[in-house]
Structures are given as structure tokens and as C-alpha cells.
Amino acid sequence: MQRQRSLLLLIVVLVFSAITVLFRFPLPLGLDLRGGAQLTIQVQPSEEVRKITPEVMEATESVIRNRVNGLGVSEPLIQRIENQQQIVVQLPGVSDPAQAERVLGGTAQLDFRKQKPGTSQQLQQLLAQRQQLRQQLDALRSQLQGQSTFEQADEQLQQALAETQQQLQNVQEQFPQLFERTGLTGKYLEDAFANPPRQGGSWSVNLRFDSEGGDRFAELSKDIAGTGRTIGIFLDNRLLSAPVVRAEFAETGITGGGAEITGNFDAQEANNLAIQLKGGALPVPVEIVENRTVGATLGRDSVRRSIYAACGGLVLVLVFMVFYYRLAGALADVALVIYAILTLASYAFVGVTITLPGIAGFILSIGMAVDANVLIFERTREEMRAGKSLYRSVESGFYRAFTSILDSNVTTLIACGALFWFGTGFVKGFALTLGIGVLISMFTALTCSRTLLFFTISFPQFRRRELFDPNAPKMAKAPRMVDRAGEKS
Amino acid sequence: MKFSVTKQRSRWWTVSATVILIGLISAIVSFFSLGYPLKPGLDFVGGTRLQLELDCTLPNNCDRPIQIGQVRQVVAEQGLENSSIQVVGEERNGLSIRSKVLDTQKRTQLIDALSAEIGEFDRSQIRIDTVGPTIGRQIFVAGLLSLLVALAGIILYVSIRFQFDYALFAIVALFHDVLVTLGVFSVLGLVAGLEIDSLFLVALLTIIGFSVNDTVVIYDRIREKSQRNPNESIASLVDSAVNETLTRSINTTLTSLLSLVAILLFGGETLKDFALALIVGFISGAYSSIFIAGSLLEWWRQRTGKPLTDPKFADSSGGSDATSTASK
Questions:
Q1: Is A226 left (phi over 0), alpha (psi -120 to 50) or beta?
Q2: Among A286, A292, A259, A289, which residue's Cα sits nearest to residue A63?
Q3: Phi, psi of A92, rounded to the nearest 5 degrees
């Protein structure tokens, strides 16, 4: 009995930690449940870039990320699928998928512009404003991150975020008015890379143009050198950087096809700018090849109905087990509830995003979790009918059912594994939830049901056969006494 | 009450063959009328599906059901004559339009035109699925690949844990279930226009797992019995193994079906076809493991005259046989 007690304690501890996990890390809901758009963007090779390398993917992702930030969606998710040359963008709660598609699907345009005379003061002001708004936005975002994802995120915070984003958008839109286009675009840029600091300075970004680009850049820099005006580097019509050209270049301009942008960059910033420049310079066409958008209320409706279905299914199974297996069924029910809690906690632990197919996997795994218990109890009944004592019947029920449980679950796990490795998107989610469910159901059936059963029949009042098998013939007293004596030895 | 699956095996085989044959005929008919043996959803062939619902908070917006003729006209004016259009919802104020791939601009145009003619749609109830043809192919290939790998893995595992011919008949039973499910959905595609999507592939894989699961439990019993009674006839061993596991087969299928029926009745719209596929597959899986897998094994071993017991199993005095391997 000592072993039973400590196992029982272990189970109680497990369940409590599982509940804690569930409260601390609520399960994130997929887009199909909370509404939003998921876009799959295909990166395509072009005349200039025939091979899509990881660098190209990274640069493209950086451009996409910039555009997503411009959309002002909170908690966007951007994922690169390297070997398929795709980028998946998830935009929760987006209300206008058409706008998102237009913004994300266009080809990135990098261009170098000339600041118009007499706009210096205005530019300084705008830059300062932008800096401030960006900091504000970061602060709001990190505040939002702390919020529970299951609950509706704080309305006020959401609104503040949206407003700040709007303001930032307004500021961004004013920059292009201060510059004029020069015809020097990303097409002429060959490379851009971050340069580590020399002699105690800060990081800088180096540019390399092709020969025609070099000429154009020399002309541009000659024009504005020493005037205090800047070169505006725009990506998708958004100002990335506005470097000043030093007066010493007023004679010839910056020649040789190379240039260096200095500023108070740290390594991260310099790298980001280089990637953005390179990204803008790479004219790889992108195409939106998949769009799945679910309206916000439609998603919420699915959640509600699926949760009803899950509860309904669970209740039916619980009732069936008690009806059919009596006391053993009731104990299996306890194990089943433990199963549900542990499984959900593992989802939270592994970071499973709950989608509609995921919920289906979970509901299905409940039905399958019962299977192990059914196998064990059927075996127990058989042994009881063969005349064994209750204790021995339960014991051999577990022992005999083990190989069946193992073999049958491993085959299901093999199917889950295949689904997980080769499947895409939500198919993966389904395989993961079902697979976790199968593993945990083996644990709960072999450990929880077992411990609970043995613990219960250690009390004499529960050691009645009809509590396990309503059709069991009543045994004479004598053999039970012998058996009980045998159990204690 | 004990019944014999081996004595009446030709009857069970006929039942299965008939069901599969009906499915096959339906698939052929479907292939010649639609070009596909099963009606493929846009997950596989690409296209755009729009689900729209009228905004009923606006006055007089949903006072009468949507007229499909009117919708068809608007859609045709946009140059999308080949789209399939359905009016959905209890109040008939929802629309489901499936067309070729529409880009943002065309889609917006269509929704605007529909709004102008039919009424304002609720933007938070909208559902858009656009799948490019390459993505559709990707999903299909990925599904097929996982199907093959799962099959190979299962054959390997069952061969190791049992014997190779056990694995073979487990696979036959599995194909039985897959064919029955495919057949039922082919018929439903012809009769009710039901389309299969990528969730259907997932359902097939789950059915495979479940089917083998069920068969393995019976095999496990046959193995155990044959080790204990090496001299019993094969037919009687198979029959009693099936009988002894019958309650378990029924109960397990029943509990799984309980959850699935719950999804079918109360679950979200997208999950209903999925649940239906699983229900068909699970019932077929229970049937095939009871009536097909065991009786095939018995028939085969009778024919080849091989004893049911692997000599290695019989020697190992009924202990665990986890270390045994397949035998020829």
C-alpha cells in the first residue's frame, strides 16, 4: 500500500502543477478560432535572382516584417518556411484582409531621394516625433504581451496601441513630402552590409552600387553635400534613414560606387538597416498563394460550439463508463478528467496553438483514452469470471492488457508521427494534439487508473464484486478470505 | 453467446466487397462526370471560397432570404459564371461562393457588387479561403507522403511485434476501411455535392491508426491464446479471440463515436465533414477487425498449412515476446 500512497501523492502533485501551468500559461488560440487572416507568401526567383538562398529569404522576410508593422496589427506572427520558399504571416483580428494583401503582396521598392531645400527644421521635428512614438509603441506592445491571450486583451490598451499606431502612420506619411525622387532605386544597389565600429566609433552600414548606380549616387551626393540637407533612403515609401553628406564631397560627390552611412547605430540597428536595404534591393517578386481569413465573430462562434462539443463528448463518455463498468468506470472517469487536465497542460507546455483541428484531435483522444481502460476492465472481468479473487483479477487485468495497449497505441503514434513530419500547418497541429493525447492516455490508464483502483480496493467496503461486474456471481465467503490472506503476504 | 467469424467468413467478405464495389462504381461515375473520383475541395485544386453573411443589425437588411438567382446574376456579371453558389444558414441569409482563384481586387469588386445588389454583409462574419493551385498540390503530396510513411511504419512495427503475414492482413483490413470511407464520400460527393478537403486526409490517417489499433488488439489475443493452447485449431483460436475481445471492440468504438457524434451535432461547420469521415471509418474499422482481419488470417494459415504459433513463441513459455522477430 505504501507504493500506492506515494503514487497517489505524485498524481495529486502532477494535477496541481498542471492546473497551475494552465492558469499561468493560457493556451493561445489559432486564427480560425479568434478570427484574423493567414497569408502564405511565395518568394519567386527572377531574372536577376535565379536562386532563392537563405539570405534572400531573410531579406524578403525583413521587408515583409516592415510592411506588417506598417499595418498596425498587434501580435502578428511571421514565419519562414525555408525549403518551400514561403513566408507565412498571421494577422490576428485584422479587419480588412484586402488591405493586408495589397500591402504585403506588392514588390518592395527601395529608392534614394533628395531632400527639398528649406525643410531641415521640419525633418528634425518629424524624426524626433517618430522616435518618441516608436518608443511609446514598444512600451505598449510589451505591456500587451503580458496580457492573457485567452481573455480579451485590455480594451483601453488596445485602443491606445491603435491610436499610437495611427499617429506614427501620420508622421510616416509626411516624410515623402520633404523629399524628391532621383531615379536612384534599389535596382542599382549591389550589396549592403553592417560594418563593425573602428576606433571607438559606432557601427555603420556600407553600400555598394553597380557602375550606373555609382554615377547616379555621386551626382546626388555632390548636389546636397554641404547644404545640410540629407539623402532620404525610402523603402516602400517609408523613410529608413536620412544621412547627411559631409561638405568635403561638394566637389566630386561620393564616387567609386561605395558609400558608408554612419550614425549612432548599434550592431542590431546596423544589421537591420543593411538587411532592409538589401531586401529592398532584391527585386524578388512575391505572390500571395494562400489566404485564409476568418471573421472575428465567426471564429468566436466556432470556439463556443467546439467547446460545447468537447464537453458533450466528454460527459457522454463519462456516463457510459459508470453505467457499464460501475465502480471501476467511476475511477476511470476520475483518471479521464486527470487525463484531460494533464493533456491541456502539456499543450500549454509544448506551446500548441489551439485550432479547430486541434480541438478535434483532443476530443478524439478522449474517446481513445477510454480504450485503454476498457481493455483493462474487460480483462479484469474475464479473470473474475475465471474465479480469481478481485485483487488478483485487477492485477492481471492490468498485466494482460498491457501488450494490447502498447501495440495499439504505438500504431496510432506511428500515424501521428507521419502526419507531423510531412503534414503542413494545421495537419501538424492535429497530429501533435492527438499524439500527446495518446502518450498521456497511456500514462493515466496504466498509472492513475491503476493506483486509484488499488487504493480503493484496499478498503474492504469497496471490495465487492458487483461493484465491478453487475452480472458477477456472488462468491462464497471462504475463498475470499483465503485470497485476502494471500494478498497480505 | 459465441458466434463464429470463420465459419461464415464468405458472408462477411461479401458484405465488405459489396460496399467497396458500390464505392468503386461511384468513383468511376464521378471520374467520368467530374474528372475526379472524389469531389475535391479547394484545398486540393485551388480556388477561392467566400462565405458571407448579411449584417442583420442594419434595418431591413435581412428581411427576406437571399435569392440565389440574383446572386448568380451578379457573379456572372463579374465574369465568374463557373462558380458554385450556395445560400446557407437557417434564415437563408448566408452565402457561400466557390470560384477560381480571385485576387484582392476581383474579390473586393465581387463583394462590393453583391453588397450593392443583395444587401450589406457583416464584415466580422466573413470567411475567405484562397488557395493557389501549387499550395493545393503541396497539401495533397504532403498528405499522400504521410500516408505512405505511416503505412510502412505500421507494417514494420506489426511485423516485428507479430509476424509478417499478420502485418499483411492488418494492412488489408486497413485498406478495407480506407476504401469504404473513400467510397462513402465518393457517393456523398455525387449525391450531396460533399467535397473533400485536407481535413479528410487527416481523417483517413486517423482511421488507419484506429483500424490497426483495433486489429492489433485481436491479434494480440490470438497470439496469447495460441501460445497457451498450441494444439487448438486455428479456426477455433481465431473465433474465441474475436469473441473475447468483442465487448471491448464495441465499447471502444462506441466511446469514440460518442465524441464524434458530439462534434457532428454541435461542432463548428468545418469539423462536421471531418467527424462524418471518422464515424464511417471507425465503424468500418470495428467491422473489419472483427470480421475481416481474423478470418483472413485463419483462411491463409489453413491454406498454407502453417501453424498459427510461431515456434519461437511456443518455446518461450508464455512470457513477453517483445524480443521476437518476424519469421518467414
A1: left
A2: A286
A3: -65, 140
Q: What is the pLDDT of residue B319?
A: 39
Task: Locate the DSSP E strands across A166-273.
Answer: 179-185, 189-195, 203-209, 231-235, 238-241, 258-265
How long, in residues, is chain A? Answer: 489
Residue B88: in which H helix or E strand, if any? strand B84-88
Between B281 and A265, the higher pLDDT residue: B281
Match 536562386 to its residue by C-alpha cell.
A51
Q: How far is A85 from chain B (nearest CA, A)?
A: 12
Question: Using CA atoms, how far apart are residues A217 and A222, in angstroms rounded to an integer?
Answer: 8
Give the pLDDT mean for A383-400.
88
C-alpha A34/C-alpha A344 separation (Å) is 18
Confidence (pLDDT) at B315: 40
Chain A CB within 8 Å of residue B126 CB = yes
Strand pairing class (A36-43; A286-294): antiparallel
Contact list, B247 vs chain A (CB under 8 Å): 378
Yes or no: say if A109 and A186 are a contact pair by the CB < 8 Å rule.
Answer: yes
Nearest to A317 among B108, B149, B258 (CB): B258
Report chain B (328 residues): mean pLDDT per 10 consecutive residues: 78 93 94 89 87 82 82 87 82 85 84 84 84 82 85 88 88 93 94 87 85 88 86 87 89 87 79 90 93 88 72 43 38
Taking the CA of residue A77 and the nearest CA in chain B, the distance in Å comes to: 19
C-alpha to C-alpha distances, B313 to B27, B290, B326, nearest whole angstrom: 44, 24, 11
State whether A375 and B217 contact (CB < 8 Å). Answer: yes
Q: What is the DSSP letter of A248?
A: G
Tell whether the model's pLDDT for residue A282 goes beyond 60.
no
Per-residue pLDDT reduced to its tens digit, B23-54: 999 999 999 988 889 988 888 888 898 888 88
Residues of B in Cβ contact (< 8 Å) with A83 = none
pLDDT tens-digit series, residues A108-133: 567 888 888 888 888 888 888 888 88
Taking each helix axis as running N to C, give the angle between helix B269-287 and helix A296-350, from 0 to 180 degrees, rounded to the nearest 10. Answer: 50
Helix (H, G, I), strand (E, B) or coil at A119: coil
Cβ atoms of B95 and B87 closer than 8 Å: yes
Nearest to A420 by CA among B310, B209, B35: B209
The CA-based angle B274-B279-B285, given to 5 degrees, is 120
Tell which A residues from 21 to 80 touch B, by Cβ distance under 8 Å: 32, 35, 37, 40, 42
| Chain Cα centroid distance, residue A232 | 36
Q: Which residues of B touch A105 (CB under 8 A)?
A: 104
Report residue A2 as a C-alpha cell: 505504501
List CB contacts of A442: < 8 A, sequence separation 6 or more: A372, A405, A406, A409
Any idea which residue has 492482413 for its cell?
B169
Model confidence band, residue A488 (pLDDT cutoffs 50, 70, 90): very low
Query: How many Å from the N-terminal Cα to the C-terminal Cα in chain A?
Result: 12
- What does the block give as the cell for B230? 498450441
pLDDT of residue A34: 81
Contact A427, A357 (CB under 8 A): yes
pLDDT for res A278: 67
